[in-house]
Design brief:
By secondary structure, this protein is an alpha+beta fold. It has nine helices and nine strands. Helix 8 crosses helix 9.
């Protein structure tokens, strides 16, 4: 009964709405409050027939995020759990909504924009950045070592809560809708490149931090480039090739968007 009241309150009562965190063609994400507790309510946008059809084979975006959180949890990763998945008919249309606890912590992207982009000679700040980079690398290494690959492992999907910021834990993962199982080293390089690329496009490139991150990741997954005499150099080259591919794709997209001269 309590769960039903929570769902009905968050989905049907406009008074629970606090603010809209994101609204795009994929989903609308609202911060809501119900009985002194904050929740994140993500309603997915899709055609009714796709929602109804893919719901039964558990392949909707909501189901993928649900299963992604379970995969990460089984891999002992820090992930924001999905509290509830609601499949409902509203105004003659089927829709799906995920409800998760709200974590009052900035994403790594916001953390970088607030603390990382500024040039500083403060040793304590520089040391904190380096330790955070190692923590992120440790997380990638641990996940890949158990065959867990997050295809959307970018800085916007990592939360820097108090225990992470203090160096006692790795970041919290959110929005795990693209998690798969796999043992290929290419998955490892993809995750590392995704992190570096998502930081690069907001103007943050920290070579020292990238090396520390990669060292920590390789230390946690000894299978990556194990047959190479210079593991660190080889892995860095593989990641660099992926980054160059991402840059080339972005340039092509920008050229296609620019008006013909």
């Amino acid at each position: 009964k309590a769960i039903s009241e929570l769902a009905n309150g968050l989905l049907d009562d406009p008074a629970t709405w606090v603010e809209t965190l994101k609204d795009d063609r994929r989903s609308t994400v609202n911060l809501c409050q119900w009985r002194n507790q904050y929740w994140v309510v993500k309603r997915y946008h899709d055609t009714p027939w796709r929602v109804l059809h893919y719901h039964f084979i558990r392949r909707t975006p909501a189901w993928r995020e649900w299963f992604g959180a379970q995969h990460l949890r089984h891999a002992s990763a820090r992930v924001v759990d999905v509290f509830m998945l609601v499949h409902e008919e509203r105004w003659g249309r089927w829709s799906q909504t995920l409800i998760t606890p709200y974590i009052a912590a900035p994403s790594l992207q916001k953390w970088i924009q607030e603390y990382g982009l500024a040039v500083t000679h403060d040793r304590s700040v520089r040391r904190q950045r380096l330790e955070l980079a190692k923590s992120i690398g440790t997380q990638v290494g641990q996940l890949s070592a158990v065959g867990c690959f997050n295809r959307d492992h970018k800085i916007a999907n990592l939360l820097i809560d108090s225990v992470c910021e203090s160096g006692r834990a790795v970041p919290l993962i959110i929005d795990p809708a693209r998690v798969i199982r796999g043992w290929s080293n290419h998955y490892f390089y993809r995750m590392m490149a995704s992190l570096a690329w998502s930081a690069e496009i907001i103007g943050y490139v920290d070579r020292k931090g990238q090396v520390a991150c990669l060292r920590a990741a390789l230390a946690k997954n000894e299978n990556v480039a194990h047959d190479q005499p210079h593991r660190l150099q080889y892995a860095a080259e593989q990641i660099a090739m992926l980054l160059e591919k991402y840059r080339r794709i972005r340039r092509l997209r920008l050229e296609c968007q620019s008006p013909a001269g």
